[in-house]
Amino acid sequence: MRDQPETPVTTVRTPPPHGAPSPPAPTPPSTPARRTTLPAPPEPGPVPPGPSAGSPAPRPLGEPRVWPRSFRDRLTTPLPGVRGLARLAREGAFRPGPDGLRGIPDLPYRPAPLPAVAPGAVCVTWAGHASWVIRTGGLTVLTDPVWSRRILGTPARMTPPGVRWEELPPVDAVVISHNHYDHLDAPTLRRLPRDTALFVPAGLARWCRRRGFRRVTELDWWESAELGGVRFDFVPAHHWSRRTLLDTCRTLWGGWVLTDRAGTGRTVYFAGDTGYGHWFGEIGRRHPGIDLALLPIGAYAPRWWLRDVHADPEEAVRACRDLGARRMAPMHWAAFVLSAEPVMEPLHRVRAAWARTGLPREDLWDLPVGASRTLAPAPDADTGGGGRGRLPSAAREAP
C-alpha cells in the first residue's frame, strides 16, 4: 500500500537491481582459447504455448525454500529519507480535495453473474482494485483478493466488491503480488479453505503457513510453477514491500503471467502494483504474445512522491505496448482512496492515452467493477508474435 506517508520513494537512481544482466567477466589474456568442434544444432521443433524455450523448468509446488534476509537490492530506486517525508507533510497532498471526491457517485459499478466459460476460453471479472477472478485452463484464480470493506490506513471502500464472496465458484488458486495491505488482506484469505493453492513472492510463504495454508508456493523473479495445466510465472515489478515498521523489503514483490499450457495457450499478465520502467520490455521479450495485460492506473498523485512505484494512466498504456500485449484492462482505481488524484481522473486519462495510440478501442477493456469479459479459444492466427498479429475484432473476444 504505497500511499502511506511513512513509505515514500525518491527519484534518485541506483545501479541495476538484482536480476538485471551484468557485464560478462573478461577472459584473462594469458588463457589460450581452446578450439572445440560443436555438434550441429537440432532442427527447430514446435514451441509449446507459454514462455520461450529455454525458460527454467517449473519449481515443485509447495517446496520449502531459504531466502536472503532482505530484498532491498531489487529496488528500482531507494526508499526515501526525512526530506521526502517532510515535504509530503508540508504539502498535505494525501487525499483528493472536495472537488476530486465529487466523482464517487460516477464510479462505474455494474456487478453481474459470472458468465459460463467454454473450454479453452479465458474469462476475467474485475472484483475491484487489484482483485480479479480469472478462469483459465479449468481453474478459478483470484489475484490479490481484497473483499474487506476497509484496509489499514484508508477510508472505507468507495465501491463494494464487484462479486459477492458467496457467488464465487470454488477457488483453485490465489496469486499475491506483494504484502501491502491493499493487496494481501488477511480477513479475505481467512475465508478460503486452507488447502487452496497459494502462489506468493519469495519470503511470503511463512506468513501464509502461519495462517494454516498448506499448499503455498513461493517464487523468485523469472521462476514458475504449474497447477492443473496452468503455468504461473512470477515476474519483476517496480515496487517494494512492507507490512510492519520492521520488515521493509523482507519479502519480494512482482507480477504474474498465467498461461493455459494444456489448452490453447492464452496468456494473462497481472501486474500487481508497479511503477513504469524497463521490466515491461523484458517481460514482453520473455513472454511473447500476451493476450491480456491487467495494469494499474490509479494511486499516482502527487507524482513526485509516487512515480517510482505507481504507474499513471499514460505510463500504463506505454507499459502495455512495451509488453507487446494485445489488450489491456485497467485496475487499481475506483475502490480505495489511496492518493490525491480526483477519483474519476484515471479512467478519463487512460481512455485518452489509449485513443492517442491509434490502437483498436475494443482492445481497451475498461470494465466497470463487477463486469466480466471473455477471450474465446485462440485460433492458430492469434498465437505468438508478441502481439503483432490481430484477428478481426469480432473473433477476438466476446463481451
From TrEMBL:
<dbReference type="InterPro" id="IPR001279">
    <property type="entry name" value="Metallo-B-lactamas"/>
</dbReference>
<feature type="region of interest" description="Disordered">
    <location>
        <begin position="1"/>
        <end position="78"/>
    </location>
</feature>
<protein>
    <submittedName>
        <fullName>MBL fold metallo-hydrolase</fullName>
    </submittedName>
</protein>
<feature type="domain" description="Metallo-beta-lactamase">
    <location>
        <begin position="128"/>
        <end position="332"/>
    </location>
</feature>
<dbReference type="Pfam" id="PF12706">
    <property type="entry name" value="Lactamase_B_2"/>
</dbReference>
<feature type="compositionally biased region" description="Pro residues">
    <location>
        <begin position="14"/>
        <end position="31"/>
    </location>
</feature>
<feature type="compositionally biased region" description="Low complexity">
    <location>
        <begin position="390"/>
        <end position="399"/>
    </location>
</feature>
<dbReference type="InterPro" id="IPR036866">
    <property type="entry name" value="RibonucZ/Hydroxyglut_hydro"/>
</dbReference>
<feature type="compositionally biased region" description="Pro residues">
    <location>
        <begin position="39"/>
        <end position="61"/>
    </location>
</feature>
<feature type="region of interest" description="Disordered">
    <location>
        <begin position="375"/>
        <end position="399"/>
    </location>
</feature>
